[in-house]
Design brief:
three-stranded antiparallel beta sheet; 22% helix; ADP-ribosylation fold; 158 residues
Length: 158
């Protein structure tokens, strides 16, 4: 799978942050986080398919599932995005902290690297995520989730 684009675990930030909300395309259970599309793989000849799926991930009107789990590298950015996007609509969300040292078997990509290498067209509304957004393919194991903050926790400073 296009190893030259994949992040080595040692190159990832210590923690990544996932905003989990109702009706999102990532499922969270006692086994971890799972993209709804848990089977699509990309080989070296699948560059166009890879590019299209990443672009779809950030097109919020897209209704086709993707194999990606979006993560933020900056806690404040994740928290503020969740508050802006979900709290203002009265929707609940949960902010998960992922310890990347526990993600050695997870294929993770930096969005900015993919954008540059694949000449991606990221929608204007998602461009603020470019510097610190990572994409995990298919799943993140439960033992990598080291902290869970509910909407209530964040709004009450916990």
């Amino acid at each position: 799978m296009m190893e030259h684009l994949r992040c080595r675990t040692t190159d990832l930030p210590k923690y990544l942050y996932r905003v989990q909300y109702t009706n999102c395309a990532t499922r969270w259970s006692t086994d971890g986080l799972f993209a709804v599309d848990g089977s699509t793989m990309y080989g070296n000849n699948d560059i166009n398919a890879l590019a299209e799926s990443v672009e779809r991930q950030f097109n919020w009107s897209n209704r086709r599932v993707t194999p990606w789990i979006s993560l933020f590298s900056d806690y404040d950015h994740a928290k503020n995005w969740a508050l802006r996007s979900y709290d203002s609509d009265g929707k609940e969300f949960t902010l998960l902290t992922v310890d990347t040292s526990r993600c050695t078997a997870v294929c993770t990509f930096k969005l900015e690297t993919l954008r540059q290498e694949l000449n991606l067209r990221i929608p204007h509304g998602a461009r603020s995520h470019l510097p610190g957004c990572y994409l995990a393919l298919h799943r993140i194991p439960d033992d990598a989730i080291v902290s869970v903050q509910t909407h209530y926790d964040i709004c009450n400073g916990k």
